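Hi, here's the filled form for the chain we discussed.

Project: internal
Contact: R.S.
Residues: 350
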Amino acid sequence: MKLGIIGKPQSGKTTVFNAASGQQEAVGDFSKATHRAIIKVPDDRLDKLATIVDPKKITYAEIEFLDAPGFSGKGKESTELEISSDLRQMDALMLVLDAFSPDADPKADMQDIVDEMILADQVMIETNIERRNKRIKTTNDKTTIQEVELLKKCQTHLEEEKLLIDIDITNDERKSLRSYMFMTEKPLLIVVNLSEEKISNASEYDSLFADFISSNKREMTSLCGKIEMELITLDNDDRAMFMEELGIKSPAVDVVVQKSYNLLGLISYLTAGEPEVRAWTIRKGFTAQKSAGVIHSDIERGFIRAEVIKYDDYIELGSEKAVKAAGKFRLEGKEYIVCDGDVVNFRFNV
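And the returned structure, exactly as it came back:
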């Protein structure tokens, strides 16, 4: 999963990036700087399985964070907004909002950034419509004509100041839009960056953005980036103590991962053996056969069956042998819907 971090300059983007990724990048007014990090997704299920299986290695799922240059914050007044191709390739966006400055207005800042993303998509659509109309004049290609009609529909939607993730189109049309990598079609995680004094009142921002939140499209959370960045420098005992004192239930990285997985409809299934204990990221609703393809296309192509153990059963009973003896070892076909935490072994033949 790739997560792009955006926001106005001095909104705390890099601070939140450091807190979520464990990096130590310089913070301040470096709006043109780009930072990138790949982190391992915290998952204590792997650690507990490893105590049983004793594997040679443990492989966690990974998230790539991209801390992008700050947006201008000028909204539709902006005339030279540049959005990098790297940022457009992200699976979802994390919008960091300043709620720590004395004159902070996170709701207004959010609208400014949304306006800029709408503007960027409008410019891209206008350019592509122009190019495809030239092609239609010479070829009269029906597919291109349909593509232009879809782009015009998107254009109208954006002119109404609506995000493309909310547009009412067919699944096939949605798939054809993905190649454009429109900014307003990406799921959005709003991160309200609080001052230390406001941590105890973080819930007040839930109502401020309630009308904007939408399942699998937009989520939000509140945290103090400065404190979270300081916490990652402490050892486990000191970190736990300070988190308790400050009323912080989960570190920033855990919150960001959970919210991001929810946004993108992702879960993890697990594999456990002596060579490796590993988490594999899939979308909710994936069948066993499709899930096998995440490991290797040959396993999907030659799928025979899936051997499935529920994680809780594995931990409670303490071994695969004990799970089988208890009658909780299951054989599933290719249409089985894999669940979060399933411990799976695929049988295949190619």
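Let me know if anything looks off before we file it.
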